[in-house]
Amino acid sequence: MILVASVMHTGTLFTIKRILPDYDVEQVHFTDKHINRMIDRVKGCKHVIIPLRHPARCLEAFKRRSKEYSYFTEQWDNMLNMSGDMSPYYIHIDDIDRRDDDIKRLCVRTGGDIDWTPSIHAGMKTHTYDLEITDDMVKEIPKRYIDFYEADKYEQ
């Protein structure tokens, strides 16, 4: 089984339906309500994948759905606090080039457990891939979230 552990609106459904449609996948969000369930699922899965979307784009999606800012920060904080213990694979959903590179690395690192066909899937776009990130949007985002998003996860 593959666990997709995610912050809401970071590309969870895109990951499950477009990247992993042929795999046994379970999904859990980094909400306080689901933390214990997530810990249990990590123990029983073969791979953990965390989709990432720029925090400003993610917050914009929260706002469009009238979700509280505290719910946004709860999930990002939980992800930052827990992800290191999960040995996850990260996929930058909203950056097409980076996403495709992340997936190619994922295929190699899983030893072929996950297969990706770039000719079919490369260049797929998410709902907010072209949403311009403004200075005003970034002002609302804790710097640690942006630093986490921008860091090269495969060089750590």
Protein traits:
Rossmann fold; alpha/beta; globular; 156 residues; 46% helix; four-stranded parallel sheet
Mind explaining what this structure looks like?
This protein is α/β, with parallel strands linked by helices and 156 residues long. It has one domain (2-150): P-loop containing nucleotide triphosphate hydrolases (Rossmann fold, 3-Layer(aba) Sandwich), CATH 3.40.50.300. The protein has helices at residues 12-19, 35-43, 55-64, 69-82, 96-109, 118-121, 135-139, 143-150; strands at 2-6, 25-29, 47-52, 89-92. A four-stranded parallel beta sheet has the order 2-1-3-4, with helices on both faces.
Number of helices: 8
> What is the fold-level CATH name, i.e. the topology?
Rossmann fold
Structural class: alpha/beta
Give the strand order of the largest sheet, numbering strands 1, 2, ... along the chain: 2-1-3-4
What general outline do the C-alpha atoms trace? globular
Profile the largest sheet: 4 strands, parallel
Output the helix-strand order.
Answer: EHEHEHHEHHHH
Tell me the name of the CATH homologous superfamily. Answer: P-loop containing nucleotide triphosphate hydrolases
How many E-type strands?
4
Strand content: 5-15%
Overall helicity: 40-55%
Total domain modules: 1
The CATH level-2 architecture is identified as: 3-Layer(aba) Sandwich
Question: Which CATH class?
Answer: Alpha Beta
Overall radius of gyration: 15 Å
Mean pLDDT across every amino acid position: 85
Q: Uncertain segments of ≥5 residues (pLDDT<50)?
A: none
